[in-house]
Amino acid sequence: MRKYAIWDKKSPVIMPSGQVLTPAEYKEMFPMFKLEHITAICHAGDVNGSFYSTLGQLVDHYTLKGCDFSSCTTDEEKLAAIEAFDDAQEKAEAEAIAEAKAREDMQADSLVSIAASLEYQNMMTLPDVEE
Amino acid sequence: MAKKAYVGVDGVARRIKKGYIGVDGLARRVVRAYIGVGGVARPCWSGGELTYFGEVDSLSEARMMMAAASAGDYALFTGGQLADGSRTNTVDAYNKSLQKTVAPALTTKKYSHAATSTYQGAWFGCGVGGAREIEFYSKTTLGKTTCASVDNGRNNLAAAQVGVFAVFAGGIDAYNKGSAAVDAYYNSGLSKAGTFDKLSKARGYLGGATAGAYAIFAGGTTTSSSSDRDNTVDAFDSQGARTIPDPLMTACPIRASASVGDYALFLSDNTAYYEVHIYHKSLATTVAQRVAVPMGNAKKDMAATTVGNFAIFAGGHNAGTYHTNSFVCDDKLQQTVGPSLQVGRRLPSAATVGDYALFAGGAESTTKNTVEAYAVM
After folding, report:
1. What pLDDT is attached to residue A126?
2. B255 vs B276: CA distance, rounded Å
3. Are B16 and B2 within 8 A, CB to CB?
4. Are B307 and B285 a contacting pair, CB within 8 Å?
5. Does A38 touch chain B (CB under 8 A)?
6. Which of A1, A4, A14, A17 would best serve as a mutation to test chain B binding (most B beta carbons within 10 A)?
7. Of A116, A107, A104, A54, whose CA–CA distance to A79 is shortest?
8. Residue B177 gets which letter from DSSP?
């Protein structure tokens, strides 16, 4: 799922508090976005002001995490690479959790089976009851 | 070494601690001043630098996992776990001259409780041993007041101040599960408020810090196990309304958090590098920022406090090795590896009094009673 988008520096910004800032007000809050050469990154959703960064900063962060940007030539391609990386990470995490749960369930089943066998063996050692 | 400057006041030389100069109609703080001597600029004054000050009076008892907070002109270090594993209710108070004094003990012996400061004093709540208790220490008298108990006892929770409230959030309950409970107390009157919503996700070992008009609670674990990591962030405004900002970029428990300038900072427990999660007072967050540490000896189980324009994270350990470096972030978000403590220890506690940040207690092979100070000079 897409988390980040490029802010066009012209649209209003909705903050997590519900406040709506004009582009000028948002740039006063984060003056780095006044610089022409800085690509501004925002949250990809209604509340676009919940995340702020430069594209360079975001790419550096994901490069350290292992995301490969070597084939990216545009800013949008870089954001797409980040989205694919995050999706892959979340999928791997979900699979690991499911695998761990399956192992736990199997272990629980095994324990129940062992307990039932022991109980049967125990019962077999008891003398027959004469009616 | 900071250069000092003095000015005569009523016939007594007083040291200048902070200096300001007008630039374009705005007062700008002077960081360093130079004077020309023989055609060469010589530094004659530096103000507002963070330095390691030294060791001060030891704690009354060697202990770790205390809760610490500022109450006006005092820094209070409360409770904790002793070397033999037992709990204590001792309270040590340090004044602005770094003299230790006695304050009333906590009602119950406890550790892994939470602390925060409000305008009128310091609050301490819950913990292992006194899971439902909330106590307040007045900044003027250091007198203690026992407040109404919380409904859900827990430990390893977080606390932060917002508006007129001291807020205690999350924690680990008696069943070793995360708690979503949020308890807020009015600063004035010390009564319990009933208007705060619960956390959006039950968790303990979370961080708590204030940014602007919000108390922010970040990260944690959903059970008592450190492997059940979470990245949820909740924010409460001064009316008790909850907002859910963007989550942490890395799910992790947060042992050390601090407020500096317009930001709340939460330090991951990563031990290869320092990674800090930043929330602006608007609740916007940005890329988690990393500071490389030589030989990868960043640490976990640290403590944090803010003095002047600096948030300091110190103490902690890295797989049983007690590196003494600190991590510092100023109000402009400049981050560096900072001055070192002399004594490495995990799970110390930190609080600020005047121009000093105190790091107290903790443990290495055994618990420590050492108290060390950083100063802004």
Report:
1. 87
2. 12
3. no
4. no
5. no
6. A17
7. A54
8. B
ipTM (interface pTM): 0.79
Are B285 and A49 a contacting pair at CB < 8 A? Answer: no
DSSP H helices, B82-181, are: none
The pLDDT, as a whole number, for residue B1 is: 44
Residue B329 DSSP symbol: E
Nearest CA in chain B to A86: B249
Q: Do B284 and A51 touch (CB under 8 A)?
A: yes
Which residues lie below 8 Å from residue B70, measured CB to CB, with a gap of 6+?
B76, B117, B122, B351, B352, B353
Phi and psi, residue B290, nearest 5°: -120, 140
Prediction pTM value: 0.86
pLDDT at B17: 65
Does A110 touch chain B if contact means CB atoms closer than 8 Å?
Answer: no
Identify which of A43, A41, A46 has the alpha carbon closest to the alpha carbon of residue A59. A41
Nearest CA in chain A to B283: A16
The four Cα atoms B159, B160, B165, B168 give a dihedral, to 10 degrees, of: -20
The answer to whether A69 contacts chain B (CB < 8 Å) is: no
- The DSSP call for residue B150 is P
Using an 8 Å CB-CB cutoff, list chain A residues near B214: 17
DSSP code, position B239? T
Determine, for residues B283 and A50 on separate chains, whether the beta-carbon distance falls below 8 Å: yes
Mean pLDDT in runs of 10 for chain B (377 residues)? 70 76 77 77 72 96 98 97 97 97 94 96 94 94 95 96 96 96 90 89 98 97 94 95 93 96 93 92 93 82 96 93 92 93 96 97 96 94
- CA–chain centroid gap for A26, Å, is 27
Query: What is the distance between the alpha carbons of residues B35 and B44, in angstroms, rounded to a whole number?
Result: 6
CA B268 – CA B248 distance, rounded (Å): 10
Size of interface A-B (CB pairs under 8 A): 46
**CA–CA distance, B170 with A113 (Å, rounded to integer):** 39
Contact residues on chain A for B230, CB-CB shorter than 8 A: none
- State the residue for tokens 């979503």: B180
- Of B163, B136, B135, the residue nearest B237 (C-alpha): B163
Q: Which of A50, A58, A60 sits opposite B284 (nearest CB)?
A: A50
Residues of B with CB under 8 A from a CB of A: 214, 235, 237, 243-246, 249, 280, 282-288, 290
CA A40, A41, A43, A44 torsion-angle sign: positive
Provide the shortest C-alpha distance from residue A119 to chain B (in Å): 31
Other Cβ atoms less than 10 A from the Cβ of B79: the count is 29
Instruction: Give the span between the Cα atoms of A16 and B227, in whole angstroms.
Output: 29
Nearest to B281 by CA among B211, B227, B350: B211
